[in-house]
Amino acid sequence: MSIRSNSNRLLNPMAKQALDKFKLEVAENLNISDDYKSGYWGNLTSRECGSVGGEMVKRMINKYENNTTNGQKITSAK
Predict the structure, then answer these.
(1) Cα–Cα distance, 63 to 65 (Å, whole number)
(2) Among candidates 26, 76, 70, which has minimal Cα distance to 52?
(3) Could you count the other beta carbons within 10 Å of the beta carbon of residue 15?
(4) 71 alpha-carbon distance from chain centroid
(5) Quick check: 58 and 51 in contact, CB under 8 A?
(6) Integer CA distances (angstroms), 8 to 13, 25, 31, 66, in order
(7) What is the pLDDT of residues 28-73, one digit of tens each?
(8) Which of helix, strand or coil describes residue 54?
(9) Residue 3: pLDDT over 80
């Protein structure tokens, strides 16, 4: 068995709180079960967690597209 390192590192560690808040906001908007409010997501189904993540990505892409069409400069983090 191999040991796998976690590749899900934030480029900006300060963004963790903002992303957690965003995740809770999306979960509430999708009306999934209230089990996530305790901070533990293990009681949710894969479908519920996937829908939260998918909606987050959808909203981030939408915001990016709106910002670029409105002429705002977007910098990529590298």
Answers:
(1) 5
(2) 26
(3) 12
(4) 25
(5) no
(6) 11, 21, 26, 26
(7) 999 888 888 888 888 899 999 999 999 999 999 999 999 888 876 6
(8) helix
(9) no
What confidence score (pLDDT) does residue 58 get? 97
Q: Which of 1, 50, 42, 9 is nearest to 26 (CA)?
A: 50
Helix (H, G, I), strand (E, B), or coil: what is residue 6?
Answer: coil
First to last CA, the chain: 32
- Tokens, residue 57: 């990505």
Q: How far is CA 75 from CA 15, 23, 45, 52, in A?
A: 16, 23, 35, 26
- Cα–Cα distances (Å) from 5 to 2, 14, 78, in that order, read 10, 21, 20
- Please name which of 12, 18, 16, 14 lies closest in space to residue 63, comparing C-alpha atoms: 18
